Amino acid sequence: MKLPSPPLPKALRRSPPRPGQNDRNGKNGRNGATVTKPKPKEQAVEGVASVVGWLDERTGASPFLRGFLYRKVPKGTNWYYTLGSATLFAFLSQAVTGVFLAMYYEPDPTRAYESASRITNEVFLGEFVRGMHRWGSTVMIILIFLHMGRTFFFGAYKYPRELNWVIGVVLIVLTLLMGLTGYLLPFDQRSFWATVVAVNLNSSGPIVGPYLADFLRVGSEFGPTTIPRFYALHMLLVPGLIVALIGAHLYLVAKLGTTAPPWLKAEKKDLLKEEI
Amino acid sequence: MADSPKQFDKKSRYTEGRGIPGAFEGETITRRRLMEGTALAAGGIATMAFALPGLGFALGPLFEDTLPTRWQDVGPEGDFNDETYTPRVMNIDPEIGDAGKTTIYVRKFNDGKDKVIEGQDPQPYVVISTRCAHLGCPVRYIQASQKFVCPCHGGVYGFQGDVEGGPPVRPLDRFYTRVTSGRVEVGDRFSLNSELERFSPRDPSNHLDGLWQYIYPSRPTT
């Protein structure tokens, strides 16, 4: 027999059990069944799901991500279509190793060579990380050109994707600029003379060329601020532009979709069926 | 409407027929458009306030000569003759250690061989810069053939630094010289066209003959 509850103020009264929670008799499940406590694994899954749900409810990210990651791709999509992602990952690898290299590198003409050789010879895993950055730069250039070749030979630059081709070309130029500005930073004989020649190549452009060379050198000769300028271009200005343009590039890829390979013709039977 | 004073019936010529929402008759500009303009102007001014000084900061060195003239002693007059070059090391920028040093070739002015340009005082010593006029690699003087040779792309220069072959676009640069109490001093660099006429210092790869000298102008940094 159940006693009437005492006239306590509402705040002190015991709240009735929520559905799925055991009441005092240990029964509140469906049809009065005993509710079993969820297992730790279920609880963990539930916890993650609730955090994701919390974020999703506040950002509305899931429709966007579903559209972006689970978008439909044409028939015949093959491994060549991964060259763009490969380039992206090459860039990410450059960004990450570059950030860590910047923790040891000193952009000063009298210290640059010494600090670069210290990274290689003394810092733990320094040779490996510097090597990844150094070889990764070449890998990125190669991947970019393979990606560009894929786009060209598959005709994926045509309407309405011309703008993405243009953005891609600007990205190539910026990546080459990364190569140019990064080459000086070890400041050994090879990088010094290569950069002398590269800056003089810039200088050979009519009218603006000499001024461009002055901008890169910070004056008419290589001076104490040349390395800091190349360093700032290499790790702040150009990567910032690259990140922004990669964003635009990916947005257009997701918005416009990818093209089928040129050897696939539209299947007329299927088309007819759908149209009927 | 008929009772209202005549001036209120007039459609404003600024807002009439434009379909601007919120436009009242007689207004010269709608509130919305005014607020849009104000917001855009404020944003533009705020952006310019940091962008212009930043740009000036980055581009400033294009408009000033930061390397003052420094006369450097390269040895007593007796060290040099007018038949062959003597290599010396000079410092273009003392602040950057070895990277600021360069080799120069020094000889006395040769009355028989050297060309005197009208209106230009000949330098008492001929000091040749080793910076190749093609892309700036260091050239080397070969005594046996009396030529300067560039290792990068095969530029060849004669005894006076004039182009004899390869890609260089003008003769090797030289330096101003003077003699102070028996010692040879080297000053600023200058460039030459193919007639060995003197020009303000240019970068390698910049032509200096005919119309080219206007396409590769003299810059404030030199």
Which key features would you list for this structure?
heterodimer; A: 276 residues; mainly alpha; Cytochrome Bc1 Complex, Chain C; elongated; B: 222 residues; Rieske Iron-sulfur Protein; 2 domains; 7-stranded antiparallel beta sheet; 3 helices
Topology:
The complex is a heterodimer of chains A (276) and B (222).
Chain A: H1 40-59, H2 61-69, H3 83-102, H4 112-121, H5 126-153, H6 162-184, H7 189-203, H8 208-217, H9 226-256, H10 268-275
Chain B: H1 6-9, H2 31-59, E1 72-76, E2 86-91, E3 101-108, E4 125-129, E5 140-142, E6 147-149, E7 156-157, E8 163-165, E9 174-180, E10 183-192, E11 198-199, H3 212-215
Antiparallel strand pairs in B: 1-10, 2-3, 3-4, 4-9, 5-6, 6-7, 7-8, 9-10, 10-11
Commentary on this structure:
The complex is a heterodimer of chains A (276) and B (222). With 276 residues, chain A is mainly alpha-helical. Chain A starts with 39 loop residues before the first helix and ends with a helix. Chain B has two domains: 58 residues, no CATH class; 144 residues, Rieske Iron-sulfur Protein (3-layer Sandwich). Chain B contains three helices and eleven strands, in the order H-H-E-E-E-E-E-E-E-E-E-E-E-H. Classes of the chains: A mainly alpha (276), B alpha+beta (222). At the A-B interface, helix 7 and helix 8 of A face loops of B.
